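# nightly structure sweep
# worker-07 picked up a monomer target from the shared queue
# config: single-sequence mode, recycle default, output format = structure tokens
# input follows
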Amino acid sequence: MDRWESFAVGEEIIKYIKKNKITNYAEFMLYCRKNNEKWFKKLCDTPNMRKYFRN
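# output follows
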């Protein structure tokens, strides 16, 4: 995944989290592992995504 695609995936994830009021990082990771491999890879490769759940 190139840099711009990575940003786009991050945007998709944030929109999904906001829309669905996701608050549990671990449960979201499990959801992604089962349902969205692209998101799961992004979460595994980007430690800063966790910070989003703290706000």
